[in-house]
Amino acid sequence: MKRIIYLAISAVICFSSCQKGQKIAPKTTDTVPVNLPGSWYQIATFTGTSTASALSFVVGNKAYIVAGEMQKMVWQYDPSTSGWTQKASYPGIGYQYLAGFVLNNKIYVGTGWGYNAVTNTVENNDFYQYDPIADAWTRVADFPGHPRYGAFSFGINNYGYVGAGTLYNGTQVYWDVWQFDADANSWKQVADYPGVGHMFDLAVTIAGKGYVGLGNNWLYPTIKDFWQYDPVADSWTSKASFAGNFQLGDAAGFVIGNDIYVGFGPLSPQQIWKYSATGDQWSRVANFPGSARVEVASFSIKNIGYIGFGTHTTLDGSYNEIWQFKP
Q1: By the 8 A CB rule, do 154 and 169 touch?
Q2: Average pLDDT over residues 77-92
Q3: What is the pLDDT of residue 315?
Q4: What b/e readout covers 195-231, taking b as 16+ CB neighbours within 10 angstroms?
Q5: Cα–Cα distances in angstroms (integers) from residue 272 to residues 83, 117, 181, in the given order
Q6: Interval 282-293 mean pLDDT
Q7: DSSP 8-state secondary structure symbol assigned to residue 286
Q8: Nearest to 114 by CA among 128, 129, 102
């Protein structure tokens, strides 16, 4: 089965009852403002096995797509040639809804969804480092919090952060946040996440600060809060809430300059929104011209945004298109 659960938030929150094939359609009608900034281009078609809910990272000027739905393959994308190269597969237990970050040109990945025969659970806490030069994975210190999936994650300087997440059946959700020290290969707990969403939050880094929000929580069908994390003060500050008229949980986003471009949530139309970190405000940019989709991979290289992969809103197939956004 493609996925055991999928959180789709509408007038009624569907948690464990959302099964493959159930339509999750946008609930809003979009009147597109004229002259929205930015342009989308379909630039390539991925010829390997398409995936959804994969992690994406950038090291140097190349992107890496890690694991995803029912697979652990790793692919490197070179925008200068639009070429894909398969790399060493992810060795962890989980393969879907993983957490990860980049520190010192190395990729760190762990936790996530995947059956663990030792614990007889689907939540995990193993963590690994990937060296792109050696094309090799090395196990690092396990995540010390409760095993989970759907956690948010981001990296700042020499530290990685993993927080929130849930158990499969929703009997336990988390707001704790943990900091990983790459030099010491150790974790420590930091300030809890104060947001409403506890899984599939958007998480990015701008100018030494983390930005997290727009996650899922079946008790709150209109999650729009957005937060900034200051690692020096170890504190969270509330920022401007998402300005769209729909809930944007499980969204995808990328950073260009001091702006976050975000969209592709399960209840979202093809609207794309920009959050200005300097102005603390939201505004519309050009709509995504392709079909609505969820669980896409997203990244930016040299001030160009990219999205790819993902699954249909009906959850019955994956996309292999790669799209480029220029602001």
Answers
A1: no
A2: 95
A3: 66
A4: bbbbbbbbbbbbeebbbbbbbbbbebeebbbbbbbeb
A5: 26, 41, 34
A6: 94
A7: P
A8: 128
Please state which architecture CATH assigns to domain 8-326.
6 Propeller (2.120)
Listed by start position, the domains of the chain span 8-326
Mean pLDDT of the chain: 88
Positions of E strands within 207-320: 209-213, 226-230, 235-239, 252-256, 259-263, 272-276, 281-285, 293-294, 297-301, 304-308, 311-312
How is 15-72 classified by DSSP, letter by letter? Answer: STT--TT----------PPTT-S-EEEEEEE--S---SS-EEEEETTEEEEEEETTEE
Q: Which distant-in-sequence residues (6+ apart) come within 8 Å of 8 by Cβ?
A: 14, 18, 22, 24, 266, 267
Helix H segments across 95-254? none
Tell me the per-residue pLDDT of 239-252, one tens digit each, with 9 for 90 and over.
999 998 887 788 89
Give this prediction's pTM: 0.90
More confident residue, 20 or 87: 87
% of the chain beyond a pLDDT of 90: 73
Q: Is the pLDDT of residue 26 over 80?
A: no
- Give the C-alpha separation, 210 to 156, whole Å: 8
Nearest of 325, 324, 310 to residue 43 by alpha carbon: 324
In this prediction, residues 122-137 reach a mean pLDDT of: 97
Cα dist from 23 to 9, 98, 113, 313, whole Å: 12, 24, 23, 6
